[in-house]
Amino acid sequence: MHVRLALFIVLLVLPAAILADEYEVYVGGPDSGLDLVYRDGKFVCGWPGGVLWTREFIPFEGCCNEILLIPLPHADAEVISAAESRLTEFGDIYETMEAVELEAVHDPGAVVWVVRAEPAISPESILRMAQYLRAKAGLVREGWLGFVSDRGLALTGWGALFVEIEDGTLTGAEYQPYDYSPNSQLREWGVIGPDEEYSDHPEANGIAEWLTADGISPIVEGTFTLGYAVKFE
Predict the structure, then answer these.
(1) What is the pTM of this model?
(2) How far apart (Å, rounded) are the C-alpha atoms in residues 141 and 144?
């Protein structure tokens, strides 16, 4: 009887143990580009910095998770506080600092998120490429508005591209039209406000693609795709 009871207890305990994942959550807010979630060292999700901590969905599964909260350089104190409050619903939080070189980019009209990435992609590679793109937003914005104004067209609002990085090299950017997923996704996150427009002009789109992909990008590792949105006003 004692053996059967012990076996029964083990069977009850196993599912909870299996679900006890360790998550690493990189949080910084707008100036740090984007926030990232890893599970047991593998990439899970990434979204524009600070936008998701007041919303319902966060990609955590199971119970009794250990969560490493990693404030990024130039972390926004209010965003960190909101993230910590939200994460307490999912597990035990341990705050830790990691050496991530990351420059602040003060541009609320430029956001980045992760569309797809290899599981083993490092957070440093994603973060560095994200900040590189956000730092180029002024150039992309100037090119778009200069092209449009030459033709007397008052196209303003947000526009988004998917940026491809293959084996660490930025290989190209593709503008996403109005009826593609980034428009609805950015609105769901609250990046694009209810009174703001989404810009889509076939010729100006090409200018945004060229300016985004042109230049020498930082040295990173891995293959991944970033979403990149700029406000053209």
Answers:
(1) 0.89
(2) 5
